Q: What sequence folds into this?
């Protein structure tokens, strides 16, 4: 397990080093010793500029071998003759430039003489295991009666023995009785991490002396004997891991390197140097083929163990990463760190270049994450943080299951001992067994009680406002369904407010709607549903799960496009975005860092959720990804805000009614409720008239062709668009079919307007060589039948859609466009090839054109390039210019990515050229495979 305390302890260790005392002229025998006498002087005066990491002039003074090797200009010492050695001559000012520089601390003549005597003695190497520099520090004993901090824990496999690291020792203790069985000693510096092989025979201990060296000791657990000491790192070791098959060892530390060792020969096989910060944790995948490294450079990198190549850099974190783990099934990489978040990346297949997509980001704690641990089953994750909090996570969706008791001191390490038990090690020197309760019930979510609210046949009644009704204590009774006509005006109150009382049963849904602007009234209505005593009623509670803010520029109250948000890479389509009281849903991904999200519906005036009000947003304004919770639900605090949403509305959420209001109310209980209506600005007057309607919802839809006249060239096609009008909350899918298509033509059918969407595209094609007179075309197309049906409104039957008014046959096309599976020849017109894409994957298809003499730049769209793609699929890798064919280019690959959550579907998709009469490619069928069915 990682030892996250290393990140916290390093400044303290650095302070201890700074107060260490080095003698001005160390005592020495007849022949000065390198480690005891010479190395401290070289470190004091030379190694700051001349070291293995920063070898100025090609000279490093931090090891005997480096001193003997010399600089880029040759040797610096001549063993046996200090008089001709460049090192002593530079120190004495006999060569230019004098070293150290004049503005640096200078060695005394006695210190220079000491180095010279060592050279005259032949510059003997240190005996035994070579070390770079001997650290001389005062002995600091632990306070009596105080347990030394625990810096790492490890449960030996198939045993009840716990390895407990305390500063520079490792104890073996009985997990049950806590009896001390053995203590391993003699480690260099603080022990920061522990690992063992799969059978628990070898114990690996990572430690080191800051600024000097890292040390890995390998102990035989049974015999309690040391097997090896490895000191290849140039600074403290913070992490060690061993592959599941025991053949590879990985080490990492403050020198920013990861070393991959052969576990048998104990030789370094690969040195991984692409991190720019200290390595805090390492983890092998369960199959041993991947290695993940967490670093202070705010990244997690994934490596190929076999050849040491980097597979991926997971760069989404915004703080140094202190803990990284693979899930027991190898499906996930999970990491946490100083940005208070836990992230989960999905491990892809073995396809070359496959990336590790980020699937979940959770704001986990109000302090940096310092330790993570899976249970053996992989369904529970435990996390600890600098704020002393401890949380349990359900790994099916990485949601919080429980907030455990606040810890008395910082947790430095966590190990799982059974499916529901963990051991915590803390800075106060104590370790504690904890039990995690069984799977919690699924948290409540805000869902309608019925997909389609029931209707009622009760006739509408009409009322006229009767004053006084300007206070909760004196509302006017209102029998629903009904309409009341009133005026926001009072001779005695400058800011009039009208109250109406109506009755509803639990679960009943009612639509409240005003007409004022549509009556040419100056009134800008705002309506609210309150309790009978006048209190606001919670509709939902929105818990923030990710924080962000608006970048580049703000947004007005209507725009749907270019929502540029900080950390947008961690957001997904269909998530709810909360900003300043407004809630919208993400519709389309940005095309890169220089673009932003589109929000629903993707065009026109944006739609809000929960009948919240559209408002303008400023640059830098906070925004949050939120998840809805039921009113009164017990929430687990995550350090981010919680926003209540009430039954109230200013302007219709879909922007169809101008400044008039529309509110959907679902009664939480049987009883009486109040409706409050007023001017949102606080104005009133005798001409501020309105109508308030309270009625049951009538979910419905209508579909129309937006392009009813098309001119189609033989051998090519033209696109048309279908648009749905939805009413009273109906959000279900709508399927449109084209029947009796004339001979010689082809229409993409069926076409689906997806749930929650308003548009879909199709195309009409004419086969090559087709010839018809205008009269023949008109007669043939009059037989076309277009019908629409909604499975969720099956009782409503099919709807007839008004057909095309005219389909004309054009001249020869200026361009022929083909779309085909990658590696396949373009299909003949009328043949529909098929490609499949698994959810969460990227495929490519081939776009080819016959330019027919035209050699201009051809554009096939930007974010909307993939016509009729299912929601959650998009044309990828297009940048800001979209899908282009440059002059003399006749073919290119088009990448299509499917988000990981998309359901199974089958669609006819095509591309449309933005020039040359907007010719369309013949379609191909795209079949989407749901998650977990990649091989179907």
A:
């Amino acid at each position: 397990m990682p030892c996250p305390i290393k990140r916290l302890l390093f400044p303290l260790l650095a302070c201890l080093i700074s107060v260490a005392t080095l003698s001005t002229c160390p005592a020495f025998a007849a022949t000065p010793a390198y480690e005891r006498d010479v190395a401290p002087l070289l470190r004091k005066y030379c190694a700051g500029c001349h070291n293995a990491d920063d070898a100025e002039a090609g000279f490093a003074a931090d090891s005997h071998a480096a001193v003997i090797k010399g600089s880029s200009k040759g040797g610096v010492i001549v063993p046996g003759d200090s008089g001709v050695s460049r090192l002593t001559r530079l120190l004495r000012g006999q060569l230019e430039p004098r070293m150290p520089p004049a503005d640096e601390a200078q060695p005394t003549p006695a210190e220079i003489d000491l180095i010279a005597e060592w050279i005259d003695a032949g510059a003997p190497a240190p005996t035994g295991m070579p070390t770079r520099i001997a650290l001389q520090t005062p002995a600091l004993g632990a306070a009596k009666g105080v347990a030394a901090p625990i810096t790492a824990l490890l449960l030996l496999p198939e045993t009840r023995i716990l390895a407990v690291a305390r500063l520079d020792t490792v104890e073996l203790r009985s997990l049950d009785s806590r009896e001390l069985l053995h203590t391993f000693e003699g480690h260099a510096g603080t022990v920061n991490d522990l690992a063992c092989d799969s059978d628990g025979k070898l114990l690996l201990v990572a430690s080191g002396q800051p600024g000097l060296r890292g040390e890995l000791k390998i102990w035989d657990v049974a015999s309690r004997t040391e097997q090896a000491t490895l000191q290849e790192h140039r600074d403290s070791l913070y992490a060690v891991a061993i592959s599941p098959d025991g053949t590879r060892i990985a080490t990492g530390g403050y020198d920013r390197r990861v070393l991959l060792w052969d576990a048998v020969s104990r030789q370094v096989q690969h040195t991984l140097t692409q991190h720019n910060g200290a390595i805090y944790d390492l983890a092998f995948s369960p199959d041993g083929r991947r290695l993940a490294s967490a670093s202070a450079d705010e990244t997690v990198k994934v490596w190929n163990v076999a050849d040491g190549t980097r597979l991926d850099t997971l760069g989404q974190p915004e703080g140094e990463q202190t803990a990284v783990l693979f899930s027991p099934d190898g499906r996930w990489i999970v990491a946490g760190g100083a940005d208070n978040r836990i992230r989960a990346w999905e491990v892809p297949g073995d396809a070359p270049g496959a990336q590790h997509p980020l699937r979940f980001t959770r704001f986990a704690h109000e302090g940096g994450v310092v330790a993570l641990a899976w249970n053996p089953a992989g369904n529970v994750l435990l996390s600890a943080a600098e704020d002393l909090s401890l949380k349990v996570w359900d790994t099916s969706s990485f949601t919080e299951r429980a907030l455990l008791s606040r810890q008395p001191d910082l947790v430095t390490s966590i190990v799982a001992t059974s499916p529901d038990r963990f051991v915590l090690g803390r800075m106060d020197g104590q370790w504690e067994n904890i039990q995690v309760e069984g799977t919690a019930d699924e948290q409540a979510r805000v869902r309608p009680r019925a997909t389609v609210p029931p209707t009622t046949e009760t006739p509408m009644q009409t009322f006229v406002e009767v004053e006084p009704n300007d206070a909760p204590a004196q509302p006017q009774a209102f029998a629903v369904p009904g309409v009341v006509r009133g005026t926001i005006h009072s001779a005695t109150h400058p800011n009039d407010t009208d109250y109406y009382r109506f009755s509803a049963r639990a679960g009943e849904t009612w639509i409240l709607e005003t007409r004022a602007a549509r009556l040419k009234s100056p009134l800008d209505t705002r309506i609210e549903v309150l309790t009978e005593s006048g209190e606001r009623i919670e509709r939902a509670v929105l818990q923030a799960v990710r924080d962000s803010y608006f970048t580049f520029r703000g947004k007005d109250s209507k725009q749907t496009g270019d929502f540029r948000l900080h950390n947008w890479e961690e957001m997904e389509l269909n998530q709810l975005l909360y900003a300043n009281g407004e809630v919208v849903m993400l519709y389309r991904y940005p095309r890169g860092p220089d673009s932003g999200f589109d929000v629903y519906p993707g065009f026109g005036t944006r739609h809000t959720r929960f009948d919240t009000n559209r408002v303008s947003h400023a640059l830098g304004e906070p925004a949050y990804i939120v998840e809805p919770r039921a009113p009164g639900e017990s929430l687990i605090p995550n350090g981010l805000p919680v926003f209540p949403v009430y039954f109230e509305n200013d302007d219709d959420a879909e922007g169809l009614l101008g400044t008039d209001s529309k509110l959907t109310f679902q009664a939480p209980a049987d009883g009486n409720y109040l409706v409050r209506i007023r001017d949102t600005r606080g104005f009133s007057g005798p001409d501020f008239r309105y109508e308030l309607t309270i009625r049951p919802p009538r979910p419905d839809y209508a579909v129309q062709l937006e392009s009813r006249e098309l001119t189609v060239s033989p051998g090519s096609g033209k696109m048309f668009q279908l648009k749905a009008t939805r009413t009273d909350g109906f959000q279900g899918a709508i399927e449109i079919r084209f029947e009796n298509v004339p001979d010689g033509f082809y229409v993409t059918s069926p076409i689906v307007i997806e749930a929650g969407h308003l548009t879909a595209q199709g195309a009409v094609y004419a086969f090559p060589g087709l010839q018809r007179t205008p009269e023949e075309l008109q007669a043939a197309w009059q037989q076309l039948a277009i019908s629409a049906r909604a499975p969720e409104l099956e009782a409503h039957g099919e709807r007839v859609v008004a057909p095309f008014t005219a389909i004309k046959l054009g001249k020869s096309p200026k361009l022929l466009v083909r779309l085909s599976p990658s590696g396949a020849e373009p299909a003949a017109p009328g043949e529909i090839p098929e490609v499949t894409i698994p959810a969460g994957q990227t495929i490519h298809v081939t776009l080819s054109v016959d330019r027919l003499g035209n050699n201009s730049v051809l554009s096939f769209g930007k974010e909307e390039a993939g016509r009729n793609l299912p929601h959650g699929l998009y044309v990828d890798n297009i940048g800001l210019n979209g899908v282009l064919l440059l002059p003399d280019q006749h073919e290119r690959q088009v990448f299509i990515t499917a988000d990981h959550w998309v359901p199974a579907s089958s669609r006819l998709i095509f591309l449309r050229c933005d020039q040359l009469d907007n010719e369309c490619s013949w379609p191909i069928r795209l079949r989407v495979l749901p998650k977990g069915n990649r091989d179907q």
